[in-house]
Amino acid sequence: MISALEKIAQKEGTPFYCYDEKKMIHQAQEMFGFFQGIKAYPTFAVKANANPHLLGVFVREGLGMDVISIGEWIAARRAGADPKKIVWNGNVKQLDEMQFMIKEGLGWANVDSFRELENWNRAKGLDPSHLPGLFIRINPSVGADTHPSIATGKGEHKFGISCKELPDVMAYAAQFHLPVVGMHVHIGSQISDVEPLIEAINVVSKEAKTYGLDRINIGGGWGIVYAEGSSLDLKSFRKQAFPLLSSFKVWCELGRFLLGEAGWYVVRVGEVRNRDEGVLVITDGGMHHLLRPSLYQARHTFSLPGADGQEQGKLKIMGRLCETGDVLVPESDGLIPKEGDLIAIHQAGAYGFSMASHYNAFPLPSEWLIKKDGRAVCIRHREASDAFLHAVPLPEELEC
Ligand code: LLP
């Protein structure tokens, strides 16, 4: 794999993202193993990475897709996803988006609020049979052991409907013949503690039973290992979850678990500056491509493909943007690269490219997939330098 990264860098230059199809398939199979003996309808959370070539790998493994926007819907459809296996998630779904999704034959939607349910009632017109199957997203009031920005399961978070609100919501659904078919819960991302996940499943399964529903969606959130922390113990999770899940048809929406460890962000060292405080390694990449270290203080592991003989020391790996917070690897002990060396930042498959931006007007990087037969294919070209201007009218086209 590491030599494939060197070859791509030689051919195409840096920075770029690269993904490993074999690892993606391995993760999908691990997930199916978790659900053995359960009627499962797993989906991939497209927000983790919306490249249709990557989505296609999961479609071929039998997964559905979890989408947030019409853009993600288009990517999922381009990857060949069956509309009946697509779940629509998110806050503040607009009426015109609902009409689009209904026309396209969307299978399922997670209803995030009473207001949203009222909008589904408006969108249905005279015929509820056009609507997707609706799952009610419950806010179970359960905290999770993760970064505060990505915890979603408590009352103070903006997501879902509280158990207290549920009787009114269900009465409204019954009154207007809305096809509520199940309950949904997602308490956050990058969770490694089994207990809160079980607590949340307890709440949804109990509520689903109360309303005679046989479907639940247990969301995503399965944690992986970065440079620190631990992954979710799937054995223990399965042992505790199985008795709660086995009488239901179970959906899930996994992003990070399926793709996180299958991707690298690859940059080249531009300069190495020796300071009294340690070595500053400045690369041709940055937080405009991989935001997680700056935004969540995430610590990814890294390696130096093709480099040898480096000394160990204290270093910090940074990008080329105009702010001090432009960090790829915060202070660490590791091999000190030389100018011109490649650095592969690991665990960059999920929420890497999908959170990239045009900050400082740099082009978005290319993406590559190492197919299971070992071939490297370009699945996204590096943008041209003026790509960020594509929606900006020329001065003579401006209208007042
Ligand atoms: N379902 C819902 C309703 C979600 O909001 C999410 C993620 C998922 C499923 C998938 O979660 P996963 O299996 O990937 O943990 N940008 C952050 C992560 C944000 C997650 C947003 N929602 C990061 O880089 O850590």
What does this structure look like?
The protein has 2 domains: 2-16 and 261-378, Beta Barrel (Lyase, Ornithine Decarboxylase, Chain A, domain 1); 82-254, Alpha-Beta Barrel (TIM Barrel), CATH 3.20.20.10. It has 11 helices and 18 strands. The chain has helices at 2-12, 21-34, 52-60, 70-78, 95-104, 114-123, 166-175, 194-210, 234-245, 256-259, 292-296; strands at residues 16-20, 39-45, 64-67, 86-88, 108-111, 133-139, 161-162, 180-184, 215-217, 249-254, 263-275, 278-283, 302-303, 312-318, 327-335, 342-345, 366-370, 376-380. Strands 1, 11, 12, 13, 14, 15, 16, 17 and 18 form a 9-stranded mixed sheet that branches. Strands 2-3-4-5-6-8-9-10 form an 8-stranded parallel beta barrel, surrounded by 5 helices. A hairpin with an 8-residue loop joins strand 14 and strand 15. The chain is globular, with a radius of gyration of 23 Å. It starts with a helix and ends in a 20-residue tail after the last strand. The structure holds ligand LLP. Residues 45, 47-48, 66, 89, 150, 186, 189-190, 219-222, 253-257, 292, 296, 350-351, 355 line the site of ligand LLP.
